Amino acid sequence: MSPSSQGTALVTGASSGIGATYADHLARRGHDLILVARNQDRLEELAARLRAETGVAVEVFPADLANPADVARVEGRLRGDAAITLLVNNAGLGPQGPALGSDIGYQDTMIAVNVTAVNRLAIAATDAFVAKGAGTIINIASVVALIPELFSATYVGTKAFVLALTQSLNAEVVKAGVTGVRYQAVLPGLTRTEIFDRVGKSFDDLDPKMVMEVGEMVAAALAGLDQGELVTIPSLPDPADFAAVNTARYALGPNLSRDHAADRYKAG
């Protein structure tokens, strides 16, 4: 099968939920696919369906992104495969409850997947895309990056990292004068996937008006990408609200680093 004119999209966490839905939508947009996740059987099932329904080429790439060796394998593919034009950095672990009193080993694994792997793959894709002057990186964060007081601490910290990483990488390539490399941080709210089942929770306990279907979320995120958004919040009605947050943040800039402490901190 000849390579797609859209190029190849590498999607992590592709065996279910948001990742599998991105794979479906991207295949229907004409992208060939590399599907990355731990569950090879589910990847094979998804790949067979997408090949049959869309005719694109789909490769299954089993990998556990909590394992540094597997992360290195995916990173190597991103750096070495010139056909890859899009990375969907989606793989992630959700919290099992509040950070206080939780299993610190699980927290470490969450950081390995949500932060370390995301960072390595985003940097690898950036290096590869800058070298050829084109490519898109979609990093899946969460609205909790903007409201850290409302959710489990370590998870919130990992998603705040993903948002800041995306914004900073974008700034770096702009400063370098690279015009063909694009970034998007997607900040979903509650989205109906299997992630709650995996940590022993249920969507039945949540206000249904707060939970978006995964297909609608991904479609909105891709519409935001098409519109050139750096940060997409699928449920936010007025983008001016987030623009105001950024305006306020930038206004802090002149006073964030000065040669003397503010007067209120001076003795006497």
Automatic annotation (TrEMBL):
The keyword Cell membrane does not apply. It comes from Nitrospirillum iridis. It comes from the Bacteria. Belongs to the short-chain dehydrogenases/reductases (SDR) family. This is SDR family oxidoreductase. Pfam families: adh_short. GO terms for molecular function: oxidoreductase activity. Keywords: Oxidoreductase.
